[in-house]
Fold these 2 entries.
Entry 1:
Amino acid sequence: MTATPSTESLVHDPNCIFCKIIAGKVPARVVYQDEEVFAFHDINPWAPVHFLLIPKRHIASMAHVGAEHAALLGRMLALVPQLALEQGCNPYPDGGYRLLCNTGREGGQEVQHLHFHVMGGPRPWARG
Ligand code: 5GP
Ligand code: ZN
């Protein structure tokens, strides 16, 4: 069966800034990637460490997640502890990090490609 944009979510949305980053069409400082997952530094960091963890497949938001995405999201979340420490977050419990997923307009989501913010490092932070 052929997927069409009207019936299936696009694997890559050509108008999506994060899909362009994954494709290498927009530069970013890459933190990590594998077949399914991509991570890169936020262009406007709130904290000494601030990177975004995203699925390579275009999923518009957490509101679009269903049971079929459970394994992918589990893999993404399971990467956070290792990546956070590698990027300079201090160890728990005195260090740690904030894991944030803004969803929808009222949730403060600006980029419509599912992403987890990982923020950490010594305070004070610019925001948050
Ligand atoms: P949201 O408000 O959707 O949760 O967060 C989107 C985040 O993406 C913001 O923190 C913003 O700084 C970051 N961002 C937006 N455009 C770009 C970009 O082109 N490159 C990078 N590296 N980050 C971006
Ligand atoms: Zn996208």
Entry 2:
Amino acid sequence: MPIYPPEPFRIKVTEPIRLIPPAAREAALKEAGYNLFFIKAEDIFIDLLTDSGTGAMSQEQWSAVMRGDESYAGARSYHRLKNAVEDIFGFKYFVPTHQGRAAENILSACLIKAGQYVPSNMHFDTTDANIRARGGRPTNLVIDEAFDPDVLHPFKGNMDISKLIAFINKVGAANIPFGMVTVTNNAGGGQPVSMENLKTTAEVYHSNGIPFFIDAARYAENCFFIKEREHGYAQLPIKDIAHEMFALADGMTMSAKKDAIVNIGGLLCMNDEKVFEKVKNELILREGFPTYGGLAGRDLEAMAVGLYEGIDESYLSYRLGQTAYLSGCINEAGIPTIQPAGGHAVYLNAAAVLPHIPQSEFPGQALCVELFREGAIRGVEIGSVMFALPDPETGKIVYPKLELLRLAIPRRTYTQSHMDYVAETLKRIKDRAPSIYGYKFTYAPELLRHFTAKFQPL
Ligand code: F0G
């Protein structure tokens, strides 16, 4: 295996974690209805549920927290964040939000009319749900390679341009209030989108008069992949690549809990003044005054600093290296993962580990439960629990193409020996895979059901 760059930081503050005994894990699973969202975090040894808001802030960020200006309007902290947002993203207008989905909600509320379509490479589940909540129809048009876990493609998150053109012709540009692209493509394996593909996507949207919004949750990781993999970018600083990317778009939504390395926060940016007027009113209703948008002044400060740390190249090469390292160790243990490794997470092909469990019995969830049972590690299913939904016309359940278990790596939080422990635990599970069974729902809400569903083993 290649040698990846070591952590470009040393540890100044520690937070204890403990491994509870097997019987206590079994009891916790039962009590949680086999949904890992209901397990007490202190009963988890290595928490790879999400990379969202779970990263470690730097000494500079904690220092900035102390500079937080908590004025209701026009706070100094807002202006610091504004400078960073303008410098990195370059949009004319922006508002802070309390997290990414709040930005999605506000954008959807302002732009979508019932029955309209919003295409993307792949929407994340909160984006999908926010579009649906306004009567819209989210549509995923990623390239087919995204659905083949083994195929090696440098930009597996790319939009399928011919699918996009055919889609616009079919539903009509007038029925598309805006189009999106998610960078990196979380729902499809944390895979990047190339600059070339972003350019063509922007051209297609714009030639049809459709505004283009980027879901920028992991834009910095995407920019680093562009630097490493796309011709002509190797010498460019990440900030320049980001400028080129965002100059293609009319706006963006962002969960700052990812690449801005903060525990809470989001952004909604745009160039259209009329849209900004609507956004501000909706923001005041739902989040807060436009200079704080549901956040404290100290959160704005931490974000302003974190935005720069998130585009630091020594950080990004360590970050993507750690993900590739975990992916390599898991593959060495004989478990297939989406290839190549994504930016923020390793996606285990649960259908390949548990081929005897049908999609209707949730192989991804089964693997997720076993990982806790075996090693008190928490991941998240990204498969039928999350995405199998009835077709609005026929009512028949449409199953997703992949059944995955995602192990998302919090930023600057776990070390290489934690990653080794995860891979060793998975190896033990692999050895007893044929004896693992599936699950059925005992409760499932209509939207975003993986958060609160309860299960029973079959
Ligand atoms: N967009 C993408 C691509 C995301 O991955 C997420 C969140 C959001 C939007 C919503 O942002 O959580 O701040 O409201 N992803 C987290 C995850 C939850 O675990 O992947 P949020």
